[in-house]
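Researcher: We're reviewing a set of sequences before deciding which ones to prioritize for further study. For each one, I'd like a predicted 3D structure that I can look through quickly. This is Cytochrome b/b6 domain-containing protein. If possible, include the structure in token form so it fits the rest of the review sheet.
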Amino acid sequence: MPSLTHQPSKRSPALQPLWLRITHWLNAVAILVMVMSGWRIYNASPIFDFAFPRSITLGGWLGGALQWHFAGMWLLVLNGLAYLLLNLVTGRFARRMFPVTPRGVLRDAWLALTARLSHADMSHYNQVQRAAYLFAVADLVMLVASGLVIWKSVQFPLLRELLGGYDMARRIHFYCMAVIVGFVAVHIAMVVLVPRSLLVMLLGRSTLHSAAKETRS
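Model: Here's the predicted structure for Cytochrome b/b6 domain-containing protein, in token form for your review sheet.
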């Protein structure tokens, strides 16, 4: 006689694990704090012939902006290291970010421009996404390195020289900031176009129904 005992359904693995979602949002907060406070710091000693509107800066005054900037810096560095280490230890970095080739990036970019790039499988990154994420990681590393030269120029003489001196480090820091702001803008645009990606990063599932089902099981 067949058993009437209810067999609990196995939980399918989340598309994005909890640790990744937490570190992702902490990185987002750190970048927001650093960019807005950095704009206020830039306004105190601009390197180009323009200033950022005070309404979109953080800190109120130079001292306050520096405090916010340092707080964001420590959050970004510590959380960023945790993000990278967990990605490497779990093997997720190798699975999700590679392979990536110029030909593959061009192919997926063309599919995206012609509205033929599939987003059905939210567990898979296309090669444009892989290249963008790898570039963002490299940009953040350069942002931190140039920031160290600006903050502690005397203590990091070799790094200062590798970046072309203090003034060049300031320019590199500004350019890297512009790149990460551009990356975030494109990232948000992609979320608007594919709203399920936001659910994945918030709940680990691509639909509210699947998230609720996993919660009940």
